[in-house]
Amino acid sequence: MVTSHDVARLAGVSQATVSRALRDDPKVALDTKERVRSAAITLGYSPNPIGRALAVGRSTRVGLVVTDLENQFYSYVISPMHRELEKHGYELLLITESSEQAPVADLVAGAGLCGVVLATTTLDSVLPVRLADRGIPFVYFNRTTPNVPADSVTVDPAPGLEKLVDDLVRLGHTRVGAVFGPVNTSTGEEREQALRHILDDQGLTLARKHVRRGPFEFGTGRDAMQELLDLDDPPTVVICGNDVVALGALNTAVERGVRVPEEVSIVGFDDLPTSAWPLVRLTTVAYDLEAMSRQAARLLVERVESGESVEAGGVHTARFDTSYVPRATLGRVEG
Amino acid sequence: MVTSHDVARLAGVSQATVSRALRDDPKVALDTKERVRSAAITLGYSPNPIGRALAVGRSTRVGLVVTDLENQFYSYVISPMHRELEKHGYELLLITESSEQAPVADLVAGAGLCGVVLATTTLDSVLPVRLADRGIPFVYFNRTTPNVPADSVTVDPAPGLEKLVDDLVRLGHTRVGAVFGPVNTSTGEEREQALRHILDDQGLTLARKHVRRGPFEFGTGRDAMQELLDLDDPPTVVICGNDVVALGALNTAVERGVRVPEEVSIVGFDDLPTSAWPLVRLTTVAYDLEAMSRQAARLLVERVESGESVEAGGVHTARFDTSYVPRATLGRVEG
């Protein structure tokens, strides 16, 4: 982004003089003012980039911030979100937040975005605070953080998990294991609490030794499954925080020659296209990810176009229902 | 992007007056000039946004343009490219070119990008022409187009395909089938020509009825495999344009209960992480996609920082070698 430093350099004056000249301070000489203004125009500098976008009402660029693009989950979010935004005359820019050092908030402001969808925000992320400070509208996607209120699109894991646990009981599972998501995400925390609560209602317990935890990644499921299968009394079913984790677990079982579901059952959450492959047939919990992605786009567009602040009008929340998708990786306990 | 129309509207003058005022045309009244300049500064308008970025030398935003983000291939490109750019002090913005109507070239200019990596350009795309016209540096990634010269990072399919065809001969395959990529991409065309040439050298032919063609997508392999398996004399091996297509073909075989490789062999190209899953074990052709992604980032950074035009100094090309990765989906012809 062009800064007042750049203008100062080009005009050959101090940064303070740039500020004074652009406020039309009478103490600045006329030819200095002229030089500063001409430099500002050459560089396309505006003292207030957000004000600029709002004043013109012309920025139609929406940013989607994600951390882990290697996670195939996001590739199914981007296309519907992109199409929905396009329908409303907006474009989508993807911003990857690969490191804590990356000044993503500056990047968002610098790229002249009219709004942002946050898809991988951790509970301790500073990005929501920074965006709120700068007055950039944003929507939480599949995540929330408690401290900064904003519109959100989330999933209610309970209905799908309830049907799943009914099936666990019916199939005779008593040694239940789980690979939960990270504790610093609302999604990980919420799915874990819902599952624990529902298992409890059905009189099933999660033994501590049968629980693993980690990022929503393939490697988390792979490593957790190695450890669980090495136990003297491995769980009869492993419920994973999402499908990508479950795919990691499933591949470990296949690699070790452990039959699924005869020797161990595996369950996911998300119902990604890969999970429905004839080669995979993962039992999982589903929701309408495409509709959710479109809804996030619509909430953001409404927020941008109304110009209404969260403080003034409150937040809009959309919560999506879940369903249980029985396939081939959950079966009856043998022996 | 802020345009001279916006400035005209805010200043309450015509667009022509904006142009004249900013050139300091003596025919424009002093107070009108003042009003136009003030509006330009408020809006951050510059008569020449490219000149602005070059003059300041401060834009460090690189765009990656891809069409089909649901294709998992790209998710493995983005992370290494992002990390390499970050090392050089640049950020990555992802731009999805979802429709022909999308004014991607305008978006690229409007977002103030210093350069672009083109990853899904078709041979007839206008984007390279538009970028060249605007003087925005770009690099072709895994693609080229013949008309607009630029730096490129591509793959040489021949070494890997030669070893693959050696193995086809050794394993007794004579009815060879193929699912090629789209004819309007250099990648599709080049892989097809290389394979045809190498098969020919080994005395193998591709019967027309055993050849299918389509976009580099899962559905292409799925549908092609249905048709090929319905033939009276299906091919004994199906060579696919990439791994995603091969995964579609493999899942169709599994769904139909056709044993791979006992009844039909399937081969891919790319060696995506999914292809190495114990559940998949796809025989394929590999190259160093991560190194390629990093190299594209480096070529672009060099081009941006040197400021050297393609016309003045010629193009830089990096070509990556391929190798053959035998796994479980290619076997001996039975019977």
What does the secondary structure layout of this molecule look like, with pairings?
The structure is a homodimer of 335-residue chains.
Chain A: H1 4-11, H2 15-22, H3 30-43, H4 49-56, E1 61-66, H5 72-87, E2 91-96, H6 104-110, E3 115-118, H7 127-134, E4 138-141, E5 151-155, H8 158-170, E6 176-180, H9 186-201, E7 206-213, H10 218-229, E8 237-240, H11 243-255, E9 265-267, E10 284-286, H12 289-306, H13 310-313, E11 317-320, E12 323-325
Parallel strand pairs in A: 1-2, 1-3, 3-4, 4-5, 5-11, 6-7, 6-8, 8-9
Antiparallel strand pairs in A: 10-12
Please explain how this structure is put together.
The structure is a homodimer of 335-residue chains. With 335 residues, chain A is an alpha/beta fold. Chain A has three domains: 4-47, Orthogonal Bundle (434 Repressor (Amino-terminal Domain)), CATH 1.10.260; 55-155 and 290-322, Response regulator (Rossmann fold); 158-287, 3-Layer(aba) Sandwich (Rossmann fold). Chain A is built from 13 helices and twelve strands. Chain A has helices spanning 4-11, 15-22, 30-43, 49-56, 72-87, 104-110, 127-134, 158-170, 186-201, 218-229, 243-255, 289-306, 310-313, and strands spanning 61-66, 91-96, 115-118, 138-141, 151-155, 176-180, 206-213, 237-240, 265-267, 284-286, 317-320, 323-325. The first copy, chain A, has a six-stranded parallel sheet, with helices on both faces. Chain A has a four-stranded parallel sheet with strand order 7-6-8-9, sandwiched between helices. In chain A, α5 links the parallel β1 and β2. In chain A, α10 crosses α11. The longest helix of chain A has 18 residues, at 289-306. In chain A, 50% of the residues are buried. Chains A and B meet through α3, α4, α5, β2 and α11 of A and α3, α4, α5, β2 and α11 of B. β2 of chain A pairs antiparallel with β2 (91-96) of chain B. Chains A, B: Pfam families: LacI (PF00356), Peripla_BP_3 (PF13377). Chains A, B: It comes from Nocardioides albertanoniae. Chains A, B: Residues 2-56 form the HTH lacI-type domain.
